[in-house]
Structure formats: structure tokens, C-alpha cells
Amino acid sequence: MGSFKHKLLAVMQHVVIVSQGKVLLLRYSAYQGQGVEGLWGLPGGHYMSGTPEEDLLREVREETGLQLEQEIRLLKTYVVMFPDGIERYGVFYLCNLGNQPEPEVRLSEEHTDYLWVDRDYAGNSISFIGPYHKKIVEDVLKSV
Fold it and tell me: Which superfamily does 9-143 belong to?
């Protein structure tokens, strides 16, 4: 019988927050220390404890100061191998705030800037943390 080879897996969760037809993007600081400084992504992070939704809402509060009370629904999943040899399973959720004014964002030290982008944003001039982030943002903006 062959030996079982344990495979490391990390779960990452992200939420696409939409307000007035715009999506919230966050720019990473050097805080992570993994070559992501200056790249853009979505609020979220690694799943750590509790229920996935509670963990995601905690990450959003920590990173943006936003207290999301609207329904969060599953959009898409993906799997990607990072250079550190750990495979990441990613989950994207959607939280649509409707026509409410864009909420005030208070960034943590993990990010340096934020943008609310609409369909007309210059997607090619924004460097995303990964291709999945860019694709999901473009898909959501086409549908709102």
C-alpha cells in the first residue's frame, strides 16, 4: 500500500462589495511582506476559525472598518498554487449594498489605499494581486 502524502491547503475568502454599481478595491501595503505591496485586491483573507461567514465579516471589519449587514452570497471558487508551495482554495462572495451611498472606508495597516471602480475603470492600469481577482471584478461590474 502506498504512503499517503499530506497536502497543505489554505482557504482564502474574498468579498466583492458593490455600492451604486461600483466595486471596492484595496491596495496592499508592505505589511504582508510577500511581494504584494502596491497590488490591488478585494477585502478578505485566510479562513481561520469560527464559521466561514463570521470569519469573512471579521476580516472585512478589520481591513475596512465596514460592518456588512446585507446578505452575502457565493459567487465563485478557485484553486491556485502559491510560490510557497501551499495550495490555496479561494472563495469569492458578493455583498451588494444597492444604491446606498458609498460607505466610509477606514483602512488597516494591511492596505494603503482604496478605490470604488465602475465599468469604465481602466482595468489594464490596475495591477491585481491575481488573475482571479481581476476576472471576478470585471464579471461583477458587467452584471450590475
Answer: Nucleoside Triphosphate Pyrophosphohydrolase (3.90.79.10)
Task: Pinpoint the alpha helices (H) of 6-130.
Answer: 52-64
Report H helices in the chain: 52-64, 131-143
| Predicted TM-score (pTM) above 0.85 | yes
Residue with cell 464579471: 139
Q: Which three cell numbers stand for residue 121?
A: 475603470
Q: Are 49 and 55 in contact (CB under 8 A)?
A: yes
Nearest to 77 by CA among 129, 12, 144: 12
| Phi, psi for 87 (deg, rounded to 5) | -80, 130
44-62 confidence digits (pLDDT tens): 988 877 788 889 999 999 9
